[in-house]
Automatic annotation (TrEMBL), chain A:
Belongs to the anti-sigma-factor antagonist family. One of its GO terms (molecular function) is anti-sigma factor antagonist activity. CDD domains: STAS_anti-anti-sigma_factors. This is Anti-sigma factor antagonist. It holds the Pfam family STAS.
Automatic annotation (TrEMBL), chain B:
InterPro entries: Cellulose_synth (IPR005150), Glycosyltr_2/OpgH_subfam (IPR050321), Nucleotide-diphossugar_trans (IPR029044). Mn(2+) binds at K144, D164. The chain crosses the membrane at residues 35-57, 472-500, 512-530, 542-563, 583-609, 621-643. Its main location: membrane. It comes from Glaciihabitans tibetensis. This is Cellulose synthase (UDP-forming).
């Protein structure tokens, strides 16, 4: 999967992908986020609005990226999950950890 | 069909006659004058009755599965070969065989020893090779479970085949098993572990034909076939789900208690000398308020990431405020100096200057100059409020790490999440078993310790998300590891009678036999029918003869789980460790054998010269001889010189 990154104001970086965030694309997402964090963009929002489907490996990648961002003094947030993604977040209880924001722009708004 | 019916009749009969016998033993035939041997004996008999009941339940649904459908279209598979210190040749034999598996796959050598020769050998053969990353340095490595968890993050196959370095796979291992995954709820397919380097008669009891056969088929009938660590296929999505759910559960437990500790630490530090400073006191108030609000948000089920992020932001703010106050006077001085400098030279703009001071503050706050950092307890407590599991290399740990037998704990959690497992009864890998008694003993000890750790940490009986039969299937295996205590009693009872003349059973011969014999006969019949002709005697011998190992496992696992004492974990060596007979390893059993021989001699002498009661004495002599025959397996084991393939003998 191709991930697009976009710099938002205040050094926030939005990362968006299209299609299935699964065991195949999860390592790619991790690599993209690691690269951004390495470049000093530690406040990350993963835009899920164009993600049709997520599996447990996709969730694992989000958790792994969250760890990376926190250790670099930043944060990782998620935005715009569709119905299937929201359901997977609930089934895995990961909604207890990550809050879903409406859009990437909302994620770091006070 | 008729065999199943017969089996169930025998199971019911065993239950009925067993309860009849043991109840009579407790109520009517206990020799209270010799309670010290009588009560342990009847307790051991009760233990055995429960054991055989659980076995009967296991057999109730024993099923032979029909062949699975063909593999799912386009299934991607990673084959993991786990190794730590096994010889390179041995690992490569397995890896090259894995490469020849016909279904498309990627073969990985997961080398926990990070050996250069291993890496070179893998590269030369075109195999993928993985070791742990630096994130594992100074953190718990979790042995094989950690090795596989590490690999799960670096690979992408939909299904995983796990192989120990000494389990050589056959080419059809994937073709014949992947089809089970066409059922979306199947997470695990376990195939048998059978060893090809075992001498006739299996002196070390390496083969487990009853377990990799009727018992696993029986557990499978209750949807409770176990994961046994090797020769098994797993669905990645199920494992990852296990990891995520475990991660959230871990946070749920740790964050609540970390917040409580932090609140307590703040209270305590109010009495610290540094708290006399009003700025520090104000910061402590701010931190206390932030903690209190975080706890309230969690009670309202706000997401952990949001709560902890906000908390740490407010704590940082409070920390900065102290440093800022400390720096206020310093800043005053700076301003004067700069004003003087500006008078004479180009100077710095006010904005630049302020930015400089702010960055100084930020740097100071993160270093240990902050007065808040003097209050280390607060800092430490705050650090523990983390959602990235800083104490672990990976936040998500799919394979369970609560036990040295990660396999059983993992399949139990999969079942608790509602996944299905399959036992596929076809030999698809040829294993290499330990070839000396010392290595065999270490291996058995490790299995038993791991099983006991699972029992103590996640007692299956209280895993409410599993169905009751599933819980009992796990419990049955754990229960069998208490056999060491029963064995001691079974060895002691005839010795006590023959030498001291004390009979733990208070009855006449007829009453005893009329209850005992029918139970004994159906019990043997049950094993005969359930076993379907597989040799079970070796297994029966070892379950009693290894009593010191089982007892050692129970006590060390208890000390480990309850008191935190390390287990003294050892990887099973794959090559022979020593030559010559190894009597030192079976000292306890040799002592018992000596006592049994003396007891038999004394018993015979007393019968001949002392008018000892002939029937009771004969029964006990027979019992002691039986015990000796059971233990005799160790004489062969201790002198066993390893496997020699037949062609080498000619």
């Amino acid at each position: 999967m191709e991930f697009h990154t976009e710099l938002l104001p205040e050094g926030i970086v939005a990362i968006a992908g299209e299609g299935r965030l699964n065991m195949v694309s999860a390592p790619e997402l991790r690599a993209v986020v690691e690269k951004e964090i390495g470049a000093g963009h530690t406040r990350v929002v993963v835009d899920l609005s164009e993600i049709e489907f997520i599996d447990s490996s996709g969730l694992g990648a989000l958790v792994g990226c969250l760890k990376g961002a926190r250790q670099a003094g930043g944060d990782l947030r998620i935005a715009g999950p569709n119905k299937q993604v929201t359901m997977v977040l609930q089934l895995s209880n990961l909604d207890r950890v990550l809050k879903s924001y409406g859009t990437a722009g909302d994620a770091y708004r006070e | 069909m008729t065999r199943m019916f017969l089996l169930r009749v025998v199971v019911l009969l065993t239950l009925l006659l067993g309860v009849n016998y043991v109840a009579w033993r407790w109520v009517f035939s206990l020799n209270w004058d010799a309670w010290w041997i009588a009560v342990p004996l009847v307790a051991a008999e009760t233990y055995s009755l429960i054991d055989v009941c659980l076995f009967g339940m296991t057999m109730w649904h024993a099923r032979t599965r029909p062949l699975p459908p063909p593999p799912p279209e386009g299934a991607t598979v990673d084959v993991f070969i786990t190794t730590y210190n096994e010889p390179i040749d041995l690992v490569m034999t397995t890896a090259l065989a894995a490469q020849r598996i016909t279904h498309p796959h990627t073969t990985w050598i997961l080398d926990d020893g990070a050996r250069a020769e291993m890496r070179d050998a893998a590269a030369a053969a075109g195999l993928s090779y993985l070791t742990r990353g630096e994130e594992w340095d100074d953190r718990p490595r979790h042995a094989k479970a950690g090795n596989i968890n590490n690999a799960l993050m670096a690979t992408t196959g939909e299904y995983l085949l796990i192989l120990d370095a000494d389990q050589i796979p056959r080419p059809t291992i994937l073709d014949n098993t992947l089809g089970y995954f066409t059922d979306d709820r199947v997470a695990l397919v376990q195939t048998p572990q059978v060893f090809s380097n075992v001498a006739t008669g299996d002196p070390l009891g390496s083969q487990a034909p009853l377990f990799y056969g009727p018992i696993q088929q029986g557990k499978d009938g209750w949807n409770a076939a176990f994961f046994c660590g090797s020769n098994a296929l797993l669905r990645r999505d199920a494992l990852m789900q296990l990891g995520i759910v475990g991660y959230v559960r871990e946070l749920d437990q740790s964050i609540g208690s970390a917040l409580r500790n932090a609140a307590r630490a703040v209270q305590k530090s109010r009495r610290h000398p540094a708290a006399r400073n009003p700025a520090v006191l104000a910061a402590l108030d701010a931190v206390a308020l932030a903690i209190a609000e975080a706890r309230e948000q969690l009670r309202d089920r706000a997401p952990f990431a949001e709560v902890t992020y906000e908390l740490h932001r407010r704590v940082d703010e409070a920390t900065m405020s102290i440093v800022a106050v400390d720096l206020a006077s310093m800043e005053e001085d700076l301003r004067e100096i700069r004003a003087l400098a500006a008078g004479s030279a180009l100077g710095t703009s006010m904005a630049e200057h302020l930015a400089e001071v702010n960055s100084t503050v930020a740097v100071l706050a993160t270093r240990d100059l902050s007065p808040l950092n003097a209050l280390e307890a607060v800092q430490a407590a705050l650090r523990a409020i983390a959602i990235d599991r800083p104490d672990e290399a990976q936040p998500v740990m799919p394979l369970a790490t609560i036990s040295v037998t990660e396999d059983m704990a993992t399949s139990m959690r999969l079942h608790a999440l509602g996944w299905k497992s399959v036992y596929h009864h076809e030999l698809l890998a040829d294993g290499l078993a330990p070839e000396d008694v010392g290595t065999m003993l270490i291996q058995r000890l490790r299995w038993a310790q791991g099983t006991m750790q699972v029992l103590l940490r996640e007692n299956p009986l209280t895993q409410w998300k599993m169905a009751l039969p599933q819980r009992l299937m796990y419990f049955a295996t754990m229960w069998s590891y208490f056999a060491g205590y029963a064995a001691v009693v079974y060895f002691a009872a005839p010795i006590v009678f023959l030498i001291l003349g004390i009979l733990p059973v208070d009855t006449n011969t007829f009453d005893f036999f009329v209850r005992f014999i029918p139970f004994f006969v159906v019990n043997q019949l049950l094993f005969l029918i359930a076993g379907r002709g597989v040799p079970t005697w070796r297994g029966q011998q070892y379950s009693l003869a290894l009593f010191p190992v089982w007892i050692n496992a129970c006590t060390t696992a208890f000390q480990n789980v309850v008191l935190g004492t390390p287990l003294g974990f050892a990887v099973t060596p794959k090559t022979r460790q020593a030559t010559g007979a190894q009597w030192g390893l079976i000292k306890a059993q040799l002592v018992v054998m000596g006592l049994l021989v003396i007891a038999i001699i004394v018993g015979v002498l007393r019968m001949v010269f002392n008018d000892a009661e002939p029937i009771g004495t004969s029964v006990n002599i027979a019992w002691a001889i039986y015990d000796l025959v059971v233990l005799s397996v160790l004489l062969k084991a201790a002198t066993y010189q390893g496997f020699e393939p037949k062609e080498n003998l000619s």
